[in-house]
Write a structure and sequence with these properties.
Layout: H1 3-19, E1 26-31, E2 34-40, H2 43-46, H3 53-65, E3 74-79, H4 83-91, E4 96-101, E5 126-129, H5 133-147
Length: about 150
Amino acid sequence: MNDLFWMQEALVRAKRAKEQNEVPVGAIVVRENKIIGEGWDQTLGKSDPTAHAEIIALREAARTLQNYRLIDATMYVTLEPCAMCAGALVNARLKRVVFALADAKTGACGSVFNIIDAPCLNHRLYSTQGILEAESLALLQDFFKVRR
């Protein structure tokens, strides 16, 4: 399995968010070539500011493994994680995060902040960006065009 395949899976979850009138961001957690957690933004429907795709996917992955430490797992997410989500990735001890689209306003994996590689924290993640960037951007632009 490769990054393109898994990012396509994350995009499927982003489309679910859009169908529910949520910001179209999707995430999956993969370990040993298997999805162990999935999520899509649900902040509006749940009235929960922490119901980001990444947090939901991390919670499910932790339940799947019965362990909050997601050693050797990779998260695929359609938009660069914010500070809250990047902090959760560090705390979960993921090995890697792959995101489609950088977020110049709130991205915390290198764009605005770089929480996942902060030398003062107890864990660091590898990152890859740009996989299916155009598709993720188009999904977000279409969503916000209708909202405005």
